[in-house]
Design a protein that fits this description.
2 domains, 53% helix, Sporulation initiation inhibitor protein soj, Rossmann fold, 332 residues, AAA_dom
């Protein structure tokens, strides 16, 4: 009886042509239709598995968090995104590309004195790849975090500023620097996401990051200077698209929001008008817990997961991932 029921289900879900072929195969082989389908599915599955053996298992989606204006929550957001993605089972590489090294501080590294400086930071990686002849393995520069098992980081400190200055003498090397680094990182087939915290600037190294990235996301504070900085970064992206036509704006979002302030409600319509569909619905509220967590040297979502800002970051990440998924579906 079960077999008859299954055949009725099968014949109602297949096209008439394939249902007839199934009946023919069943008679030729002398086996039930369900077994024919079972074998066919198994054969297709084996072929699919074989075709995927050589395919990359981790996409290595590179997202740069940027604004020409400092103090808008760029580093706070990068750290929060990394922590939340790792909690969702994703493997994340964080690259601190800002010589201030604030993101590194969220994940356990601070070079307050020369004695504390580590040799395997981003500046030494850049010099190794673009000035040396014998190269260290990439893994030497990637630091693993015991407290964050799915997050790795390439640290930064003030020495990076000098390395960037040296690279400005070679415009070609400077332009392609991060594209080559990110390609090498993706070849590891280890990371689902690569998050890059760029310094607040429009210069060669920020352009190089854009040239190597898939997306840019712009945090905006409810202030005129921050909005001007966001517009500057967006216009700057256009130049980088000459060498990376696939670069896209993932979106713009408000940080440090106080809903009751006049400045926020004055600037909100202007931002909505400028960014239209690029503006995320979720806004990150101003929250003392963010400051407290950062003073302790942690992402706010890790140290204060129940606070308002952390809950907002969860919703914002949902929006981000949905946009990425939709973009990938369109490109398939």
């Amino acid at each position: 009886m079960a077999d008859l029921i299954n055949r009725k289900v099968i014949n109602t879900t297949l096209s008439k042509d394939n249902a007839e072929k199934l009946r023919t195969l069943s008679k030729r082989k002398g086996i039930p239709q369900t077994r024919v389908l079972d074998r066919a599915v198994d054969t297709l599955y084996q072929k699919e598995e074989a075709s995927m053996e050589g395919a990359a298992k981790h996409k290595g989606i590179a997202i740069c968090i940027a604004n020409n204006k400092g103090g808008v929550g760029k580093t706070t957001s990068t750290a929060a995104f990394a922590d939340l993605l790792s909690k969702r089972g994703k493997h994340v590489l964080v690259i601190d590309a800002d010589p201030q090294g604030n993101l590194s501080g969220r994940f356990g590294y601070s070079a307050d004195s020369p004695e504390q400086a580590i040799p395997n930071y981003l500046g030494s990686l850049i010099e190794d790849r673009f000035r040396g002849t014998e190269h260290q393995p990439l893994g030497y520069f990637i630091n693993h975090l015991d407290e964050f098992p799915r997050i790795d980081i390439i640290y930064s400190d003030i020495r990076l500023d000098g390395v960037y200055t040296l690279l400005t003498t070679d415009s070609i090397a400077s332009a392609t620097m991060f594209r080559k680094l990110l390609a090498e990182i993706r070849s590891l087939d280890k990371y689902d996401y690569i998050l890059i915290d760029a310094r607040p600037a429009v210069n060669n190294e920020v352009s190089s990051i854009f040239i190597g990235s898939d997306y840019v996301i712009i945090p905006v504070e409810a202030s005129w200077d921050s909005i001007v900085g966001a517009n500057t970064i967006y216009q700057f992206m256009a130049k980088s698209r000459e060498l990376n036509p696939a670069l896209k704006l993932l979106g713009v979002f408000f940080t440090k929001v106080q809903d009751r302030t006049t400045s926020f409600h004055t600037l909100l319509p202007m931002v909505k008008g400028n960014w239209d569909k690029d503006l995320f619905q979720t806004k990150i509220p101003r929250n003392q817990d963010v400051v407290n967590a950062e003073n302790e040297g942690y992402p706010v979502t890790y140290r204060k997961p129940a606070c308002k800002a952390s809950k907002a970051y969860v919703k914002l990440l949902d929006e981000m991932v949905e946009r990425i998924d939709n973009d990938e579906k369109q490109n398939d």
